[in-house]
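Letters spell out the chain; backbone shape is given numerically. Take this protein:
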Amino acid sequence: MPKVILIQQVYNSRRYVPQVYGAIAAQTFKDMEIVAQIVSDDGGCKEYIERHYPQVKILEPGYNIGFARGHNEIFASTDAEIYQLVNPDLILTPTFVEEIVRAFADPKVGSVAGKLLRYDFSANKATNTIDATGVTISRSGGGRARGQHQEDRGQFDGDNRIIGPDGAAAAYRKAALQSVKYRRPDGRYEYFDEDMHSYWEDVDLSWRIVNAGWQTRFAPRAVAYHGRVAASSPGGYGKIFAFIKHHKAIPARIRQLNYKNHIYMFIKNAPRWYWQFFARELFYHIYVLLVEPGTFKVWPEFWRGLKLMFAKRKFIQSQRKISVEQAEQLLS
């Protein structure tokens, strides 16, 4: 079996394909299979990949299967030691996969995060601005791409205090995925939570992996450049008007998934219930009520899934291999 399966879910990304696949083909690490799952083609993605990169295995579900289920089906139907995810707008440096594989040399490591810097596709220019150096979670349930918007000065290079990798370039050990899979009512196993569909499902999976006793690593020499559509507001909550402007520019469905899934993730994984979580939710709900009431249209969907989320919490907590105290050390 290949040591690495590199997976990209192609979603209307024709403008990125030449650069992204050129970078994939230029990897110094060769013991890998490349899979392109085309869920929506805005004109010529499949044809370009087939013509220029015939070594790529193309999968076509025939509909927008979603990030979670799409990757789950690949995890379940293929075999490799490591799975490397690559967003449609992610440009890898030549040694990216090689450095990721090196970080998995420790058998206790279940997931690895590379260093993602921002890429300006409008100017066709790489920057030195951090997009993510892994993801952190707080007791309030807030998740952040560590270092996002900061200039990269190597300030995170020796720091592994993350919950897991950003989903744009996440790498997982197959054994870690197998240890946290959940049997769905229809009998299929899920790794990413399919009831989330998209958004937060990557952080949820990382949290479950560390709850199951695996370690996560930050590999600072595994560098990639990311275009990213939905980043955090540069000023955070501290610059409220900038935050409102930034957040309202995000499509309504993404805001709804963000609302539903960040609560689902906390319910499933948090070792305890924290007052910080309820305080943050109170202020967040006031904000949504006053500024983005349309987000509450997801409520029927949210309430329908809540019972299942508590069932998943029961399963996850029963399988947890680390103590509550160890779990809390992972929270920022």
Notes: Residues 236-329 form one domain.
